Here is the input.
Amino acid sequence: MKVYINGKLVDKKDAKISVLDHGFLYGDGVFEGIRSYNSMVFKLNEHIDRLFESAHSIMLDVPLNKKEMVSAIITTLKANRLRDAYIRVVVSRGEGDLGLDPRKCRGNESVAIITDKIALYPKELYDKGMKIISVPTIRNIPEAVNPQIKSLNYLNNILAKIEAINAGYQEAIMLDHLGYITECTGDNIFAVKKGGIYTPPQCMGSLRGITRDTVLDIARESNIPAHEHVITRHELYISEECFLTGTAAEIVPVVNVDGRIIGGGKPGNITKFIMKEFKKLTQKDGVRYKI
Ligand code: PXG
Here is the structure.
């Protein structure tokens, strides 16, 4: 496996970053998780835009421009001969010293691109649906570190994931400081009620997911009413269907929330329709490359 680090493609065993890199010391950096299907990178420009927005917000200079970033990603995919891949792009503040001051890292910002085969949840989960649970750790409030920033510090989400796993569940629902639903640890969440789909507005403390936006587009084009609206736990419990969206997991039906059965315990028709339409899109849209 070849990994891109700061302009070079190196073997995985040589793909190393300094222990003084502020990405390692402080989680000071940003990342993206992207996928390619059938030699096409899905929503590549949207991911690159979000990466640069995250970097801009934390005042991190990305050492490549957007065009160079696209070309580095494609080069890495080609070097690994991957047609269907998971792509992780990491930009960190770079090597500094043992202090928070990011000025010490200036000029050392580092870019790593790791591509690999994708590890999906088992097919059974997509057929039968997932059980999820709300957990004590709340999502970062937007006035602290805004969840729109896809930063290298995922401790907030990792704590929630640990709490879900300890309770015997695979995924956690994270609430905000007022108790409203925000998202899961690496996925956005949707509820279906009376034929319409509902997801929390992005200002409520969730990441503006690219899969989420794609699902909203699919719904609008298919005349399924789509709403960005605050959701309480009660509203999720009485929803007819529920599903999660994310680049890694794609679209996962949810059939049980905090012990309440959703939609008779089976993935619903709107969820299945959206899964089908999403799959079609991934097979035909994207930035093409040749291996
Ligand atoms: N919320 C959070 C907190 C995320 O990290 C999503 C929602 C979904 O966004 P997209 O744009 O992917 O639809 C994410 C992204 C992982 C992993 O290893 C998860 C994500 C990204 C990269 C890796 O589980 N989730």
